[in-house]
Amino acid sequence: QSRKLFSYNIVLIGFMGAGKSTVSEYLSAMFAMDVVEMDQEIVAREEMSIPDIFDTYGEEYFRNLETKLLIEMQERKNTIVSCGGGAALRAENVKEMKKNGRVVLLTAHPETILERVKDSEDRPLLNGNKNVEFIDNLMESRREKYEAAADIVVHTDKKDINTICEEIIQKL
Ligand code: S3P
């Protein structure tokens, strides 16, 4: 384990299944960083699953919780903030991400994404839509916003986790 201490946070963004959670775990083990999984934190605080929050209060409510959490995270440093796949779609959220530190966009091809998410049931936007066409379309509609939010972009297709994390660290 390296002793590197970051004076800022690393914010991970990207589509569902791009590898944000896996990268968070690995980076935190490499550098003794804290991790905040935004989705998990929201689920814990609301005492509800993501699909239940969406069903009960709607997407807008959920996005507001994301904004609040991103503001709170600015009090910390040396923390990996792993965002839900939609967090970077709001300009307001992106502004708060930038105040946290460096924003890292993880990408993967739709085929890879499908492979990674096909057994997951806690992604309401993909329920009943687990096919390459749907993923491709949603991804394309988000691409510009993801790219505009990112300081760094790392492609994750066909790379092992160590290679991905090395690449992130090099580019930071
Ligand atoms: C979402 C992605 C999910 C979760 C919610 C909405 C999105 O997070 O926040 O289902 O809009 O892309 P993951 O990217 O961790 O799956």
Automatic annotation (TrEMBL):
<dbReference type="GO" id="GO:0004106">
    <property type="term" value="F:chorismate mutase activity"/>
</dbReference>
<dbReference type="GO" id="GO:0009073">
    <property type="term" value="P:aromatic amino acid family biosynthetic process"/>
</dbReference>
<comment type="function">
    <text>Catalyzes the specific phosphorylation of the 3-hydroxyl group of shikimic acid using ATP as a cosubstrate.</text>
</comment>
<dbReference type="GO" id="GO:0005829">
    <property type="term" value="C:cytosol"/>
</dbReference>
<dbReference type="GO" id="GO:0005524">
    <property type="term" value="F:ATP binding"/>
</dbReference>
<feature type="binding site">
    <location>
        <begin position="17"/>
        <end position="22"/>
    </location>
    <ligand>
        <name>ATP</name>
    </ligand>
</feature>
<dbReference type="GO" id="GO:0009423">
    <property type="term" value="P:chorismate biosynthetic process"/>
</dbReference>
<feature type="binding site">
    <location>
        <position position="39"/>
    </location>
    <ligand>
        <name>substrate</name>
    </ligand>
</feature>
<keyword id="KW-0460">Magnesium</keyword>
<feature type="binding site">
    <location>
        <position position="142"/>
    </location>
    <ligand>
        <name>substrate</name>
    </ligand>
</feature>
<keyword id="KW-0963">Cytoplasm</keyword>
<feature type="binding site">
    <location>
        <position position="123"/>
    </location>
    <ligand>
        <name>ATP</name>
    </ligand>
</feature>
<keyword id="KW-0479">Metal-binding</keyword>
<dbReference type="GO" id="GO:0004765">
    <property type="term" value="F:shikimate kinase activity"/>
</dbReference>
<dbReference type="GO" id="GO:0000287">
    <property type="term" value="F:magnesium ion binding"/>
</dbReference>
<keyword id="KW-0808">Transferase</keyword>
<comment type="pathway">
    <text>Metabolic intermediate biosynthesis; chorismate biosynthesis; chorismate from D-erythrose 4-phosphate and phosphoenolpyruvate: step 5/7.</text>
</comment>
<feature type="binding site">
    <location>
        <position position="21"/>
    </location>
    <ligand>
        <name>Mg(2+)</name>
    </ligand>
</feature>
<dbReference type="GO" id="GO:0008652">
    <property type="term" value="P:amino acid biosynthetic process"/>
</dbReference>
<feature type="binding site">
    <location>
        <position position="85"/>
    </location>
    <ligand>
        <name>substrate</name>
    </ligand>
</feature>
<comment type="subunit">
    <text>Monomer.</text>
</comment>
<keyword id="KW-0547">Nucleotide-binding</keyword>
<keyword id="KW-0067">ATP-binding</keyword>
<comment type="similarity">
    <text>Belongs to the shikimate kinase family.</text>
</comment>
<feature type="binding site">
    <location>
        <position position="63"/>
    </location>
    <ligand>
        <name>substrate</name>
    </ligand>
</feature>
<keyword id="KW-0057">Aromatic amino acid biosynthesis</keyword>
<protein>
    <recommendedName>
        <fullName>Shikimate kinase</fullName>
        <ecNumber>2.7.1.71</ecNumber>
    </recommendedName>
</protein>
<keyword id="KW-0028">Amino-acid biosynthesis</keyword>
<keyword id="KW-0418">Kinase</keyword>
